[in-house]
C-alpha cells in the first residue's frame, strides 16, 4: 500500500492534479489489476446479502415510494428494479434498489475513523452495468473499486466528528467504481469523483433525533448522484478542484480545516484491491454497534430468571457506540415507544431490552409497535444506560484487526445486589467472531428473508447467477435481480410530481 498525506493547499500554490486525492483515487480506479478469487467470492456474497435485505423490505413504505419513482422513468435497455424487473433508467433503478437495500439496516458495514455500508456501492454500479451491457468480469472489477476506495476513505477521514453524514465517502467511491466498470480514463473519473463529492456532502441530522426514512434514502441518493456525475463527466463537464484540498474545499470548511493531515492508504499500482475483505455483514437488523451486544444479551439471558428484578443495566463501550446509539446521544427519542423504526434501530437501550426479554432478534417482530409498547419492555428499557470507556474506544480504532472491537461490557445489577457481568468484543458473525459468515450463511440469510415473498424457483435462479458473478454474460448481468410474479406488488400508487 502507498500512504498519501492529504490536507489543505493554498490556492496560490496551485496543487498539481497528480497530487490531489481525487486524482489518486481515479488512478486506483483505472489500474487494470486482476481481482483475487477470494474478493470475487466476497462480491458474490454481498450481492446475495443486498438482495436478501432488499426483498424483505419490498412492501415497506419508503421502498414502495422509491420504486414508484423509478417506475415513472422507463428506459431501454435500462436497468432492473428489485421486485419488478428491468427497463428503467439506471439512475432511478439505482435509487429504488439503494433504498431497498438500506431500509432494514441489515447489510454490510465497515468501521474505522468513520463508518460506512460499502454494499451501497453495488446498486449504482450494477444498474450501470445492466444498462450498458457489461459482463460479469466488468461488474466485479467495478464493485472491487467501489469497496476499495470507500474503505480507504473511511479508514482515513473522519466525517462524523464534524457532523457530516458518511455518504460523503460513498459518492466518490461509487463514481470511481462506475468508472472502472466502464473502462473510463482517469481524467473522466477524476471529474466524476469531484462532482460526486461536492454534491453528496450533508449533515448527520439524518441519524440524530427523530430519525426518518431519509436514513435509507441517503445512500441511494449518493448512488444516483454518482451515476449522474459520471454521465456529465463523460460529456466533458468538470468539477470543483481541488475538491478535497482547496481553500474553500471539503477539508477546509467541512472537516479538519487548515491543520488537517490525513493519511490515506491506497493500493500500489498492480496491487490487488482487497478492501472488501476488511468489511463485514450483519446477522441482526440493527445498527452495527448493536450486533455484538445483541449476541451478548442473548447469551447472558439464561442467567436472568426474572427481568423485573433488574435494577439497572450499564453498558460500557466505545465513544461511537455511546454517542450514536447509546444514552450519550442525549436523544429522548431513543427511549420513546412511539419512535420510528429508524430511531429504534439506533437505540441500543431498546435493542438490549428486547433481546434480553425475547432471547432473539427479528427484523420485523422486534420493531413492531406492540413490541415497543410492552409495559415490561418499557420499564426495563428505561433502566439501561451506556457509558464510554477509553479502552473500548481505543480498541474500536485499533490498527491491529485482531485487537479491534465493536462491542462492550454489560453489567446487570439485580434487586438483591447481585451483578451479572459479561462482555463481547465482536459479533458472532464477524470474521473473528464465534460464527463467521461464509457463503452458506449468506444463502441462508437470503432464503430466510425471501421466504413467503420470492418463489423458490426464482430464489434458485438468482442464487445461481450470484454464485458465478465473474463469469456472467451481459445478458445474465441484466438478469441479476429478483423479480416477483405479476401482481405480487400490486400496491396503491403513491402520488408525487411524476
UniProtKB/TrEMBL annotation:
EC number, UniProt record: 4.2.1.79
Keyword Cell inner membrane: no
Chain ranges of the MmgE/PrpD N-terminal domain: 19-262
Alphabetic keyword roster: Lyase
Residue ranges of domain MmgE/PrpD C-terminal in the record: 284-466
Record bears the keyword Lyase: yes
Catalytic activity, reaction form: (2S,3S)-2-methylcitrate = 2-methyl-cis-aconitate + H2O
GO molecular function list: 2-methylcitrate dehydratase activity
Pfam families: MmgE_PrpD_C, MmgE_PrpD_N
Gene3D superfamilies listed in its UniProt record: 2-methylcitrate dehydratase PrpD
Family affiliation: Belongs to the PrpD family.
Quaternary structure (record): Monomer.
Matches recorded under PANTHER family: 2-METHYLCITRATE DEHYDRATASE, 2-METHYLCITRATE DEHYDRATASE-RELATED
Entry protein name: 2-methylcitrate dehydratase
Species assigned in the record: Microlunatus parietis
Amino acid at each position: 500500500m502507498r500512504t498519501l498525506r492529504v490536507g489543505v493547499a493554498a490556492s496560490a500554490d496551485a496543487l498539481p492534479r497528480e497530487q490531489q486525492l481525487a486524482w489518486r483515487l481515479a488512478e486506483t480506479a483505472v489500474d487494470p489489476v486482476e481481482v483475487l478469487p477470494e474478493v470475487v467470492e466476497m462480491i458474490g456474497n454481498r450481492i446475495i446479502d443486498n438482495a436478501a435485505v432488499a426483498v424483505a423490505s419490498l412492501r415497506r413504505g419508503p421502498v414502495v415510494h422509491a420504486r414508484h419513482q423509478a417506475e415513472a422513468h422507463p428506459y431501454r435497455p435500462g436497468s432492473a428494479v428489485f421486485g419488478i424487473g428491468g427497463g428503467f433508467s439506471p439512475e432511478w433503478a439505482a435509487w429504488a434498489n439503494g433504498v431497498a437495500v438500506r431500509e432494514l439496516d441489515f447489510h454490510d458495514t465497515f468501521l474505522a475513523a468513520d463508518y460506512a455500508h460499502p454494499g451501497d456501492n453495488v446498486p449504482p454500479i450494477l444498474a450501470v452495468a445492466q444498462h450498458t451491457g457489461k459482463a460479469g468480469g466488468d461488474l466485479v472489477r467495478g464493485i472491487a473499486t467501489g469497496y476499495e476506495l470507500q474503505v480507504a476513505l473511511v479508514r482515513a477521514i473522519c466525517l462524523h466528528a464534524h457532523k457530516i453524514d458518511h455518504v460523503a465517502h460513498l459518492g466518490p467511491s461509487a463514481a470511481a467504481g462506475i468508472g472502472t466498470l466502464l473502462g473510463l480514463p482517469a481524467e473522466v473519473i477524476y471529474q466524476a469523483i469531484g462532482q460526486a463529492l461536492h454534491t453528496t456532502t450533508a449533515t448527520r441530522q439524518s441519524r440524530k433525533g427523530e430519525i426518518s426514512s431519509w436514513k435509507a434514502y441517503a445512500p441511494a441518493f449518493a448512488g444516483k448522484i454518482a451515476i449522474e456525475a459520471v454521465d456529465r463527466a463523460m460529456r466533458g463537464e468538470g468539477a470543483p478542484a481541488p475538491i478535497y484540498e482547496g481553500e474553500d474545499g471539503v477539508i477546509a470548511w467541512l472537516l479538519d480545516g487548515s491543520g488537517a493531515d490525513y493519511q490515506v492508504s491506497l493500493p500500489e499500482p498492480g496491487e490487488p484491491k482487497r478492501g472488501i475483505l476488511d468489511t463485514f455483514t450483519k446477522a441482526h437488523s440493527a445498527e452495527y454497534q448493536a450486533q455484538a451486544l445483541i449476541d451478548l444479551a442473548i447469551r447472558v439471558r439464561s442467567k436472568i430468571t426474572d427481568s423485573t428484578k433488574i435494577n439497572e443495566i450499564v453498558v460500557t463501550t466505545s465513544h461511537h457506540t455511546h454517542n450514536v446509539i447509546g444514552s450519550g446521544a442525549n436523544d429522548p427519542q431513543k427511549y420513546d415507544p412511539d419512535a420510528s423504526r429508524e430511531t429504534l434501530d439506533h437505540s441500543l437501550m431498546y435493542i438490549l431490552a428486547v433481546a434480553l426479554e425475547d432471547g432473539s432478534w427479528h427484523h420485523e417482530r422486534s420493531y413492531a409497535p406492540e413490541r415497543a409498547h410492552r409495559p415490561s419492555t418499557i420499564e426495563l428499557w428505561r433502566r439501561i444506560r451506556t457509558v464510554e470507556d477509553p479502552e473500548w474506544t481505543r480498541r474500536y480504532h485499533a490498527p491491529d484487526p485482531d485487537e479491534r472491537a465493536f462491542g462492550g461490557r454489560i453489567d446487570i445489577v439485580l434487586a438483591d445486589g447481585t451483578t451479572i457481568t459479561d462482555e463481547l468484543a465482536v459479533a458472532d458473525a464477524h470474521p473473528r467472531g464465534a460464527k463467521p459468515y461464509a457463503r452458506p450463511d449468506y444463502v441462508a440469510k437470503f432464503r430466510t428473508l425471501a421466504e413467503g415473498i420470492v418463489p423458490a424457483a426464482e430464489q434458485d435462479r438468482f442464487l445461481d447467477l450470484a454464485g458465478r458473478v465473474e463469469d456472467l454474460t451481459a445478458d445474465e448481468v441484466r438478469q441479476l435481480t429478483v423479480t416477483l410474479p405479476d401482481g405480487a406488488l400490486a400496491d396503491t400508487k403513491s402520488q408525487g410530481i411524476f
